[in-house]
Model the fold of this input.
Amino acid sequence: MLNQDILQRWHRSEVVLIGGSAGSFKPIFRAVKGFAEGLNKSVIIVIHRKKNFFSEIEKLFAENTRMSMREVADKDVIRKNTIYIAPPNYHTLIEAERIFSLDVSEPVWYSKPSIDVTFESAAEVYGQNCTAILLSGANQDGAEGMLKLKQAGALTIVQDPDEADMSEMPLSAIHLGAAHYVLSNNDIFELLKQ
Amino acid sequence: MDGIPAYDSLTTPQLFELIDLIKRVHGFDFSQYTKASLKRRLVRIMQFKKLSFYDLKHALVNDQAMFQEFLEEVTVNVTEMFRDPSFYKALNAQVLPYLSSYQHIKIWSAGCSSGEEVYSMAILLKEAGIRQKSFIYGTDINTEVLKEARMGIYSLRKIKSYAENYQFTGLPGTLTDHFTILYDAATIHSEIKQNTLFSVHNLISDTVFNEFQMISCRNVFIYFESDLQEKILDLFYKSLCPLGFLALGSKEAIRSDFFRKRFKVVNQKENIYQKIGA
Done:
């Protein structure tokens, strides 16, 4: 259920972070389709992706959203009403000046991009002006980063593990105490339309 | 902040204090490195070594071995042979035909780390039949990784992942054709090693040392702020022969207006450029 606290924190967020791995494509796609036209926030999506495979994700998202869509490149300025997707084989970080920087250092939880890396750097830059959503996945990437976000005052939402195709990622965040709210898919999509 | 252990975070003023200290004590200037990544590397060191900010500061000043470790950690040395196979395909199709018209081809791999890119390039040139007349210089800020580069020995675990990249390049045979494998290590063939030279060069403080037909500097700019990138573009511009090629990482486009006029785009997706007059 979307309460007043969730809505308030959502409305003050400059940026929406979405993290997911196996089983997260469908909910992310639905989210991308559902974002309101005048959202006035930046959306940053980190999905675990394999290198060397040309992916149609960006194209598919771009054709199905009312927002601009861009794969992150080094030193891109983070703009409102734009959906950014982290490129494969790099970690995506956020600088204090609200620009992206990339990093090719070792994978975290076998993943590059790692959700933890982006979430942790967003926690430093955005603090409470941020909403983060962690979805289905088969490993624990994202949980630590989400905890940092929560400690920094961001709104942290985890997909109900019972509704996730792979429950490990949401469960890890819940066990770590990183989630303010565990929401059903319907509630999550309802929030993103606000 | 409550609940965060002392060695799990670094404030921005603390980061600047460390940068300043390292510059004064060791002469390395990290002031124009991207801060988010630099901070993350430092926090990793603090976590591994269980050091507080004050311990770290002390160790960086007084412990040379610790400083060397720091240097290795912050100058990210993760690299792959044939990273981004589509880049090597583009080189093969759009750059090598042009390079082969030169009597001698000099190539500079800047920020070469443990040498993977130099050897990838060497294999590519060999398959194109122009290896004999080419010379590849690999440079890095870090002396330790250059030792690895000179040896040209890589673990089988790594080779397995590099071989996967190789399959996507469309080059003939397999990557391991160019290696001798013994137990759990693979050594690059000496004919690939020929005409390569690895030496220390600091992109921030060192200058032009030769004239090249191609410079490759991939996934190095991501660690530099825009002003520093521009300074190094100037170094590359001066180090290239007329119509020489510059290859940056696939996410590192030239953004500066000044240099966009001085480099023509050869391949937009792979960020391959060619030096032109202003």
User: Anything to note?
Assistant: Chain B touches chain A at residues 1-4, 12, 34-37, 39-41, 76, 78-79, 83-85, 164-165, 168, 219, 221-223, 226, 249, 251-253, 255 (CB under 8 Å). The mean pLDDT of chain B is 93. The longest strand of chain B covers residues 240-248. The beta strands of chain B are 105-110, 134-140, 153-155, 179-182, 185-188, 196-200, 212-217, 240-248, 263-267, 272-275.
